[in-house]
Amino acid sequence: MDSGTSSGDITVVHVMRHGEVANPDGILYGRLPGYHLSELGRRMADRVADHLASRDVTYVVASPLERAQETATPIAKAHGLDLATDARLIEADNVFQGKTFGVGDGALKRPENWKHLVNPFKPSWGEPYVEQVVRMMGALDAAKDAARGHEAVLVSHQLPIWIVRSYVERRRLWHDPRKRQCTLASLTTFTYQGDKIVSVGYTEPARDLVPAHLLAGAKPVKGKDKAFGA
After folding, report:
1. CB within 8 Å of 109: residues ≥ 6 apart
2. What distance in Å separates the CA atoms of residue 53 and residue 50, rounded to the nearest whole number?
3. Structure confidence by residue, pLDDT tens digits, 201-213
4. Cis peptide before 123, with omega less than 30 degrees from 0?
5. Are 21 and 41 in contact (CB under 8 A)?
6. Does domain 7-214 have CATH number 3.40.630.10?
7. Sign of the C-alpha dihedral, residues 146, 8, 151, 211?
8. What are the tens digits of pLDDT across the range 63-121?
9. What is the pLDDT of residues 72-84, one digit of tens each?
């Protein structure tokens, strides 16, 4: 058997959520172009690059959206790697893209929004959870193959990361968005033995830089918890 495909190979795939985005108007930016990291977001990206600098990273890939590309760039640079792009890592599609939609803004009371909220199990307001699983698992497997026996870093967005983790950990896909464990600049780490995921881990290397109300599990704060996109 080729040692490069041995069932004993250990490959580590880190899936990172991008850093904070400059978004003063509180727009749910979704897949819209033109949303870049804030100064704080760039500091988060640098922090994670430092955190991973000593790791055996041989492949770095990001969603095509600017905030993901900018987050991944210092990580790739630290390892002397070209940054790859995988469209499968993109943010989930959402019909509320371009609008404000969050805690305390009255969005749930607007009749024009009700038709999009009828089925939280799918969900009816955006890309089906199952479709997110399929594309994210494809991106993870491709990264595992590209970095086999080493480590890869993928930069993506909160919802797709949480959904693929939920799938791997055999949880239901529909969930309370406030309870996602996927803070800005966090790492959700999948360890493969051969082609099988054998463990999932979670770390927050830039936790001290994340505003308290945006930490995983934080209680929503009216006026500070709009669904800006992730």
Report:
1. none
2. 5
3. 999 999 999 999 8
4. yes
5. yes
6. no
7. positive
8. 999 999 999 999 999 999 999 999 999 999 887 777 665 544 545 556 555 344 555 65
9. 999 999 999 999 9
